[in-house]
Structures are given as structure tokens and as C-alpha cells.
Amino acid sequence: LDTNIEKLNGYLARFRETGILNRVAGEDVPGSAGVYQNTTPIDKSVICDVAHGTAADIDAAAKAAHAAFAEWRDMPALERKKILIKVAEGIEARAEEIALCECYDTGQTLRFMSKAALRGAENFRYFADQVVEARDGQHLKSPTLMNITTRTPIGPVGVITPWNTPFMLSTWKIAPALAAGCTVVHKPAEASPLTARLLVEIAEEAGLPKGVLNTVNGFGEDAGKALTEHPLIKAIAFVGESRTGSIITKQGADTLKRMHLELGGKNPVIVFDDADLDRALDAVIFMIYSINGERCTSSSRLLIQDTIKDAFEAKLIERVNNIKVGHPLDPATEIGPIVTEEHFNKVTSYFDIAKEDGATVAAGGEKVGEQGYFVRPTLFTNANNDMRIAREEIFGPVLTSIPFSTEEEALSIANDTEYGLTGYIWTKDLTRALRMTDKIEAGMIWVNSENVRHLPTPFGGVKASGIGRDGGDWSFEFYMEQKHVGFAL
Ligand code: NAD
To answer: Where in the numbering of this chain does the Aldehyde dehydrogenase domain appear (predicted)?
Structure first.
């Protein structure tokens, strides 16, 4: 831990001196509303000042992205590919710095964030490999016409990201945008600006021309809003809360923005009594108590068959009570502090809500210490799906266990939610699994597995969990326009 803190202090020294500036057209620019202070959830101390950008800064960044668009769009594909591969290499070379900064900024633990930094590099490599074919179209010959379709990048786009795993998620949006040939204005979450700054530095060092990626820090209601309303910005890739997704859709309506929304979830993990219960237990724990439970795909509702409920919950309680809460830079720590005071207050409010609703706090349900925003990993039992702990996205290390008796009942509880991001099914009866996957209302379902992301597959949700898909060619569909040309024969 001490070595990691020492290294972190080395990395942060320059930010403590200069603050984090916006990056527009390859230049450092102060925020037009001055600065705001970024704090760490570990002990609430100030990390550094951050440029407070507003509509004026977004305007400058959108103009820079617009000015850089033609050069980037028309650069030969192989050259663009080379630059994106170099970005991946730059991320790998600075993975430790990224991971340490991310943990200090967000409270995420090093054991997970060191992998997330490398996932960022993978995202760049994966989309770099598609650059050459990404714009390929089709020939569709009719008796009288030779029809040619092509794809072309939509133009400058806005990317708005949340504070959970912010580096990985930013690369997940920005890499395909750049690979498509779009230029980008990135508005990172106000609570986690550090690694967005590292990303733009790495990209420019890799040779990305000035203005192709611009970063404007600031708050959602001014900088974020201005980005969604800017006429030069052709599309918005957004990751965040469902409520915000709805607001930005309205904000973008006047300029007819194309929107891609990756939103919240209240995802079920359904464990039948014929499942491999040891593996299911590991996965149930991993999918809600890793990454501080601040994960859109987390399985926050455990639907457990009543025949095995008592035994499964007993093992779960024992494991949850042994999860190590601590300093996020300690490699042994499994759960770090909750990202901000506001979010900490939200997560901890459910400890009372659960009791008021009649559920049992079977593990956790407490704050830890006074120094930072630490909570014990929490398990609620004796719950039903009507309780607020089963309906609302808590977005912390908090699991609600709900019993069911039949397949039909499991399905009905699973779908009785406004969300539809992921679902997880544990059973050895694969016919039953097929029936369930067919009927569960979710964009992504895993059978006998935790969430394992394979980049060519579509990622996204249904219902209040979002609109649109990322991954593989789905990302390019979003960042590009189709063009049809018909030649008379
Ligand atoms: P949030 O919606 O509060 O903020 C996300 C981003 O939107 C921030 O950058 C914020 O500044 C900006 N924003 C806020 N109001 C805005 C406005 N009016 N106009 C433009 N921008 C605005 O979300 P959060 O609390 O930072 O993140 C947690 C949420 O993100 C959770 O609900 C989680 O489920 C969701 N999430 C979803 C996915 C997914 O892939 N589906 C992935 C990660 C996180």
C-alpha cells in the first residue's frame, strides 16, 4: 500500500500544481467558469483543481472538433489504424498510472482497476483492427440499377461518461468513434476527471491530430447540456443514469441529435436448485461486490429457488461478511469507498429503507469509519420484488435476495422491473435456460456465467436501460451514416 501511495503521489504532483485543464484543439485551456475542486472518497481530501467548463468551452471544443473532422475523416485508413494502435500501446505503457489515479479519484479498488486500464487498451486495439473495413458497403444489383451503399463518419460527436470505471467506459465510446473517422468532444463525469485527462494526453502523444479528441470538464447541467444542444455535434454517446438519458434526449431534440443511451439496471441473477451452486455462489458475489457494486451490469437482485434458499443464503452471508473493505490502493482490498458524498448518502439510505419495508439486513448495512465514504457489503433477505430495494438502482455493494418457487414465478419477478440491461441464469437444465433467455426482457443474458464481455458482441439494454448497442459493427452503425447511390445500367 505504501509503495502504491508513493507512486500515486508522484503521478499526481503535476495535477496538484497546475490543476486539470481542458484540452481543446491540442491546447490546455482553463475553464471559463474558473475551477472546481476534485476530492477523493478515501478521506474526502482535495486532489486538485479542475477546469470548470461551461457552454463557451463546449462551443470552442465543438468548433475544434468540426475543424479537425475533414483531415481525420480523409486520413488513409491504415494511418488512422496505426495511430489507434499507438494509443493502445500508450495506455499499456501508462496502465499503472491510470489504475492508481482511477482508484484515488473514484474509490475503485486496484485489484479491479488494473485490469480495467488494460481493457481500455484492448478497446482501442479491437476497433483499430476494424478501421480498414469499417466503411465498406455493399453492391446490391437490381435489373436496372447498380446500387452501391457506403458508410461515412457522421461528423463530430459528443461523448458523455459517468464516474464508474470512467477510463474503460470512455475508451469503449471514444475508440470506435475515432476508428469510424469521427472527431470527439468528451465531457467526463465531474467526479472523476483524472483519467480522462490521461487519455487525451496519450492519444495526442500517439499522433492523434489536434482537435480530433477534445476534453471539456464541467457539470452535466451546463457543460453536458451545452454539448447535447450544440449544432455542430451530430451525435451523443451517453452512459449514465436513466433519468439523465431522458433529459438529454429532450435537450438534443431541437438539433435532431442521434443518441445512443447506455443507462441503469436492476439486473436479476436467477439460481435454480439444479445449478452448480458453488460456481453460482462465486458469480453472485462477483457480480455485485466487485467494482464496489458501482456497475451497470451488476446482478443486484438474487432470485433464489425456495428449495435451496436457506442453505445458499447462509453460505452467502458467510462470504459477504469476509469481504475486505479498505484502502483501494491496497491490493488485498475488495471494496473501496463509494465515489461521492451524494452517492454514499444514497446507498446508505437503503439500509433504513430495507428495514422500513420489512426486509432483513442479513449482512452489512453499516457505514465503516468516519474518514471516507466506506460501507460494509450488504445483503438484504426476506425481501419481495415490490420493495424499493428490489425496484430502485442502488448502485453500490448491496444485494437483495428474493425467493421463488417455479420457473414461471422467476420469470415474472425477473421481468417485473422498469430496467432491462442484463440477466444471469444458473441451471443445468439447458432447455429451461433457453425458455428463460427467450422470455427475459434484457439486452444481454449469460447462462451459467458471470458477465464476460466479448467485444464483437452487442452490448446494451432494453426498456429504461437504454437505446442502441455498442460492440463490433454495432458501434460503427452508430458513428456512421449509410449512403446509397444508384447507377442506371
Ligand atoms: P449521471 O447520469 O448522473 O451522469 C453521467 C454523465 O452525464 C456525467 O458526465 C454528467 O455530468 C452528465 N450529465 C448529467 N446531467 C446532464 C445533462 N442534463 N446534460 C448532459 N449531460 C449531463 O450518471 P452517474 O451517476 O455518473 O453514473 C452512474 C449511472 O450510469 C448508473 O445509473 C449506471 O447504471 C449507469 N451506467 C450505465 C452503463 C451501461 O452501459 N448501461 C455503464 C455504466 C454506468
So the answer is: 35-485
Q: What does the alpha-carbon distance between residue 449 and residue 469 come to, in Å, rounded to a whole number? A: 21
DSSP character string of 136-194 = --EEEE-SSEEEEEEEEE--SEEEE--SSSHHHHHHHHHHHHHHHT--EEEE--TT--H
Note the helical H segments in 358-468. 388-391, 407-415, 430-439
Name the residue type at position 187. K
**CA 162 – CA 288 distance, rounded (Å):** 18
Q: CB within 6 Å of ligand 1 — which residues? A: 160-164, 169, 187, 189-190, 219-221, 224-225, 228, 239-241, 244, 247-248, 251, 262-265, 296, 393, 395, 421, 461, 465-466
Distance CA 486, CA 477 (A): 21
ipTM above 0.85, yes or no: yes
- pLDDT tens for 284-334 read 999 999 999 999 999 999 999 999 999 999 999 999 999 999 999 999 999
Q: How far is the CA of 162 from the centre of ligand 1 (A)?
A: 4
Strands 398-404 and 235-239: unpaired
Tens-place pLDDT, residues 45-79: 999 999 999 999 999 999 999 999 999 999 999 99
DSSP state of 396: S
Q: Are 252 and 264 in contact (CB under 8 A)?
A: no
Give nearest CA residue, ligand 1 atom 35.
240
pLDDT averaged over every residue in the chain = 98
Q: Among 320, 322, 336, which Cα is nearest to 379's?
A: 320
> Could you read off the pLDDT of 169-191 as tens digits, one per residue?
999 999 999 999 999 999 999 99
The pLDDT of residue 137 is 87
Q: Which residue has the cell 469521427?
A: 182
Alpha-carbon distance of 275 to 448, in angstroms, equals 8
State the first-to-last Cα distance of the chain, in angstroms, to the nearest integer. 72
Q: Which grid cell is 388?
A: 424499493
**3-state secondary structure labels for all residues of 205-245:** HCCCCCCCEEECCECHHHHHHHHHHCCCCCEEEEECCHHHH
Given a cut of 90, whether residue 339 has pLDDT beyond it is yes
Q: Whose CA is nearest to atom 42 of ligand 1?
A: 296
